[in-house]
Amino acid sequence: AGGKAKLEALFRNAPEEFREEFSKQYSDLADKLITDAIQVGDNEQLRRLTMRYAFCSAARRGQLVLARRALDRGEYLETALLLGRLLRQNEKPDNTVRLQMALCYSMAGLEADAADLINLIVREQTDANLQVAGQSIPLPKNPAETPAWLQQHAESLIKQSTGWSQPGGSYRRTSSQPRGPAKFGFSWKSNLF
């Protein structure tokens, strides 16, 4: 991870001419390869390509597709990590991505991480509401309200803010099945006596 972080910092601090030349040389190829991987549905290839061409706009699109697919499968932590990588590669912080990341952390059972991100959004946001996908989402007024706000809004906001109408995966999933972190247990029992 140290090498990747140094490469990201090098790219961010590089002169504009370098970024333009990089874009000129690799953007078309990255766009073609990533579009092909999206159409085929090859998530592993798409993951490799988004890491290889991380500084191209096509890679950001690919990461959003990977995040959407992970969310559709009910993999909230994976979705949050993908959105975090996307956030690190953006030129400026994006509070809508932070909100989606916080909601996924909350659904994954990482309430403290989710609350930290929501509090960061509240500190940086000048308005009491956040505009996401054409909707105005009210934010908590102070950090003490954040845990209750997450408890009340997390699942419904994932559907509203992202447009992902089927979080949790299969349409066969019933409302009685949990969507949080996995809980391990015995799948069968045996008694010889």
Helicity range: 55-70%
What structural class results from the helix and strand content?
mainly alpha
Q: Compute the CA-based radius of gyration.
A: 19 Å
Distance between the termini: 53 Å
Largest sheet: 2 strands, antiparallel
The largest beta-sheet arranges its strands as: 1-2
Counted beta strands: 2
Q: How would you summarize the topology of this molecule?
A:
Elements: H1 2-13, H2 16-40, H3 43-52, H4 57-72, H5 76-89, H6 95-107, H7 111-124, E1 129-132, E2 135-138, H8 146-162
Antiparallel strand pairs: 1-2
Explain the overall architecture.
This protein is globular. Helix 2 runs antiparallel to helix 3 (43-52) and helix 3 (43-52) runs antiparallel to helix 4 (57-72). With 193 residues, it is mainly α. The chain is built from 8 helices and 2 strands.
Attribute tags:
mainly alpha, 193 residues
Task: Give a quick rundown of the structure.
With 193 residues, the chain is mostly helical. The protein has eight helices and two strands, in the order αααααααββα.
